[in-house]
Design a protein that fits this description.
With 274 residues, this protein is mainly beta. It has one helix and 18 strands. The relative contact order is 0.18. About 19% of the residues have low confidence.
Amino acid sequence: MLKAFGSLALVGGLAGCAGGSGDEDSEPNATETTEATEATENAHTSETPAETDTPADEETETEADDEPSEGGGARVEFVHASPDAPDVVALVDGSAATKDLTFGDVGDAVDLEPGSHDVRIVEATDGDAVLFEEEVTLDGAEYTAVALGEVAEGASNPFAVEFLEDETGGLGDGESRLRIVHASPDAPAVDVTEDGGDVLFEDVSFGDAPDTELAADEYSLEVRRATSGNDGTVAETYDVDVSEPGAYTAFALGYLMPGGGGESFDLNVVRDDG
C-alpha cells in the first residue's frame, strides 16, 4: 500500500519567487541492466515488494510492513519527489523495493540489514533506464529516501536520492516534530515563519531538510523568500495540522513555474511515525 500525502490549504502565489549534485553515474553493464529489468517486471506483478524473486534467507531485506523494525535493522521509505521524472521503481541489491512510484508517492517501508547496499532507481516501464545508482551505507535506523531534482539533461539540480534519517522519538508530552524538505528545483531559498509569530526555519535551500520541535497544534505557516532578517515578502501561507503529537515531514514539491503541463508547486505532509 502506498502512503498518501495529506494536502494542505494554500493561499497566495509563489510564481514571482522562482529562482534559477553529484558524480556522473557509470553506464550499467548488460548483467546489471538485465537484473534491473527483471526486478522491475517483478514489481509490476507482485502484490508487495517482499514477493520478488529473492532467496529465502534474503527475504527480510525487501519485506514491507507497518510494524517498527526490530533488532537494530534499517528501515527505508522511498519518496518520488522529482517533478519531471517518469514513474519509477526503487531497487535494493538488485531486488524491487517498491511498486511503481508516481510523482508524490511514498512507498511502503522496507526492512534492510545495516551496512552497505546498492540502491538503484529505474524507470518503471524500462528497467534498463537507470536514473540513479549508488552504494549506500545504512545504520540501524529509519530513513526517508527522497528522489528529487530533475532528470532533464543539463538540469541545475540533477536527479539524486537523499537518505534522510528519521527522528521519531525524544518528544515530550504534547510535542510534535516538523521537518521540511525543500524538493522544488526552481524555488529559491526560503524562510518559514508562524503567522505573526516565530521563525521556524530559515534559509532553507533545495535539498535541505531541517526540523524543529513545536507544540502539537494547528499552525498557519508563512513561506517567504529568505532574507537576513527573516522578513521577506510572504509568498505562500499554508495551514499545517500537527495537533496529534508525533513526527511529521512537509515536502515542498513541484515547480513554481511549471509550464508545459509540469507538476505544480505544493506543500504536502506525511507522518513519519504513523
